[in-house]
Amino acid sequence: MGNAVARNFAKRRMRASFLEFQEKVEEGIFVFVAKKDILDIGYKELQKSIYYALKRVGALKKT
After folding, report:
1. With pLDDT > 70 as the criterion, what percentage of the chain qualifies?
2. How many C-alpha atoms does 31 have within 13 Å on its Cβ side?
3. 1 pLDDT exceeds 70?
4. Angle of the 43-56 helix axis to the 4-20 helix axis, nearest 10
5. What confidence category does residue 2 fall into, taking pLDDT thresholds of 50, 70 and 90?
6. What is the band of 40 on the pLDDT scale with cuts at 50, 70, 90?
7. Which string of DSSP letters, residue by residue, matches 25-52?
8. What radius of gyration, in Å, describes the C-alpha atoms of the chain?
9. Rounded to an integer, what distance in angstroms lies between the CA atom of residue 21 and that of residue 33?
10. Structure-derived torsion over alpha carbons of residues 17, 23, 26, 28, reported in degrees to the nearest 10
11. What b-and-e string marks burial along 5-31, b requiring 16 or more CB atoms within 10 Å of the CB?
12. What is the pLDDT of residue 50?
């Protein structure tokens, strides 16, 4: 993944992106694994990836 700076950057980006969906997500424990590509993609693309991952596993609340 990289050095500590890169790992912390990836964690901050994933956490911030996930928090935007927090109200739409069922309660539970979620584990995300960051791949090296997370450092190269844009924030909007990361948000879309997290949204589709949550949707795929059925973690989004039914509206």
Report:
1. 97
2. 0
3. no
4. 60
5. confident
6. very high
7. B-SS-------GGGGTS-HHHHHHHHHH
8. 12
9. 17
10. 60
11. eeeeebeebbeebbeeeeeebeeeeee
12. 93
